[in-house]
Amino acid sequence: MNIREVVTEADLHDVFPVLQQLRTKISREEASSLFQKMKEENYKLLSLQNEDDEVVCLAGVAICTNFYNEKHVFVYDLVTAEAHRSKGYGKVLLSYVEKWGREKGCSSIVLTSAFPRVDAHRFYEREGYDKVSYSFYKEL
């Protein structure tokens, strides 16, 4: 297994089919445009390749600081390719993100997950994550 940072447009093109399994409404063009802006805001997209060099899992993360979580890793995106779920890839990549966050001086890792994603909630709870709040959203 190999973990790499997605940096270039070509890298993003290679991982897009997996990303689209989580972000189903986004086009390649939108993803490309947003990715450039997100990188400017310290977003990192990490890719896990299996032994056959297939992209099997992605994590989109950023280090943030605020009054309630102090310095922390925020996980914006975490997805394992549907054909490769329940093989431990998500656990491997999330563990890598946790280690990376510790090395960067973060005190916690934070994420949100939509209500219908019950399997994802079970996964996070198995990995030691607690449900601590609701996330609210309002379109502007």
Q: Mean pLDDT, nearest integer?
A: 97
Please tell me the total number of domains: 1
Question: How many β-strands, per DSSP?
Answer: 5
Shape: globular
Sequence stretches where pLDDT stays below 50 over 5 or more residues: none
Name given to the CATH homologous superfamily: Gcn5-related N-acetyltransferase (GNAT)
Helix content: 25-40%
Stated plainly, the CATH topology is called Aminopeptidase
Gross CATH architecture: 3-Layer(aba) Sandwich
Distance between the termini: 42 Å
CATH class group: Alpha Beta
What fraction of the residues are assigned to beta strands by DSSP? Answer: 25-35%
Helix/strand/pairing category: alpha+beta
Order of helices and strands: EHHEEEHEH
Radius of gyration of CA atoms, rounded to a whole number: 15 Å
Tell me the strand order in the biggest sheet: 1-2-3-4-5
Outline the biggest β-sheet. Answer: 5 strands, mixed
SS summary, helix count: 4
Describe it:
The protein is an alpha+beta fold and 140 residues long. The chain has one domain (2-126): 3-Layer(aba) Sandwich (Aminopeptidase), CATH 3.40.630.30. 36% of the residues lie in helices and 27% in strands. The protein contains 4 helices and 5 strands. It has helices spanning 9-22, 28-40, 89-103, 118-126; strands at residues 2-6, 44-49, 55-66, 70-80, 108-111. The chain has a 5-stranded mixed sheet with strand order 1-2-3-4-5, with helices on both faces. α1 crosses α2 (28-40). Pfam families: Acetyltransf_1 (PF00583). It comes from Bacillus mycoides. Keywords: Acyltransferase, Transferase. This is Acetyltransferase (GNAT) family protein.
